[in-house]
Amino acid sequence: MSTVTAPPARPPSSSWIKRTLSDRIVWIGLAVWVVFSAAIPYLAQGAIPFDQPMLAAMPYRTRVMIEIFGPVVAFIFMGVAYALTRRRFVDIAARAPERSVAMRETLGVLSYGAVVLIGGVLVGRLAGSHRIGLHLAGSMFGMTDSVSPREVWAWSLYNFAFYAAIPYVWFRRRGYSREQLSLKSGNPLNDTIVILVILAIGLIFDLPGNAIWKLSGRQFAAGALLAFVYSFLGTGLPVMIFLTSILVPRYRKLTGSTAATLVLGGFTYAAMHLSEYWTRYDTSAHAALSVVFIVLFFGGPGMVKAYLTLRTGNAWVHFWGYHVIWPHVTGDTPLFVKIFNL
Predict the structure, then answer these.
(1) Is residue 221 part of a domain?
(2) For the chain, which end, N or C, has fewer CB atoms within 10 Å of the first or last residue's CB respectively?
């Protein structure tokens, strides 16, 4: 089955804008952004209560601005992706089954994901002292506590098994091909260009002042390898299979809208992070602030991952260009050096 065909006649830009602004899911997304942004000062009361030592020196107002305008940054990446793929047309909705089946599968996958999310909290406590989230404890923001190698093993194997391996095998057994799961490129050259450009933009922001420059050559080599392998298993494959391979085509089928698919992708990706190690649920204010920060911080990247898959029809594009290498290898290599005492 071919997924790359001649694009249909493009509607006027005014028509595209009108369709987008008439979508209820888009308005829900905008409303959540506005309400959550406005709620931060009331919930935080001038202080961010999370264990994120890498951001501790940042002024409170700067932290708040990063959260509020973080989703806007996502549109920079999406704009670049559109420019690089403007001559391509991929009907990713055609890879999903008819609507009633797509709805049942979507609800089933989301319910399953909720169970896996809760299970990670329990398994994490048994394996160590931290919840199992989509990111390893200490990833991206650092932490004042320590993480054991055993916890790293438990985190990566749990997420790989329940977010990636089981859903992949299940849908393959249901007869879905690798192409229908968006795991096969229809245009390798253009996909490679998108990966390299998106990755380059991320590295431009990430590498200046990065802690990896303080590592020795041996530490960097060993730490980067560990960061790659564990991030590959523990967060890269789980996000790719669960969200962009399975859910994104079904969101597009059910909504018939690219914009709505992006909003749903952002919400889903954020929901997968609700058990992140730095979140606090000890009080109602902390719990609400945790949800606000999760949605605002991870909603944008979730939309980018969904958009890259929609534009290329290849879930591996976001995997290589916008997840495993940057930010995880570049950002988490010092963490793995510390955990494994390299």
Answers:
(1) yes
(2) N
Tell me: the pLDDT tens digits for 100-147?
A: 999 999 999 999 999 999 999 999 988 877 899 999 999 999 888 889
**Distance separating alpha carbons of residues 123 and 163, to the nearest angstrom:** 14
User: What's the confidence (pLDDT) of residue 3?
Assistant: 46
How many domains does the chain contain in total? 1
Task: Kindly state whether residue 139 falls inside one of the protein's structural domains.
Answer: yes
Domain that holds residue 212: 73-339
Reported as a single tens digit per residue, the pLDDT across 228-286 is 999 999 999 999 999 999 999 999 999 999 999 999 999 999 999 999 999 999 999 99
Is 3 among the domain residues?
no
CA angle 232, 290, 263 (to 5 degrees): 65
Q: What's the pLDDT score for residue 303?
A: 97
Q: 332 in a domain, yes or no? A: yes
Average pLDDT over residues 275-301: 95
Q: What is the number of other CB atoms lying within 10 angstroms of the CB of residue 232? A: 18
Residue 4's pLDDT band (cuts 50, 70, 90): very low
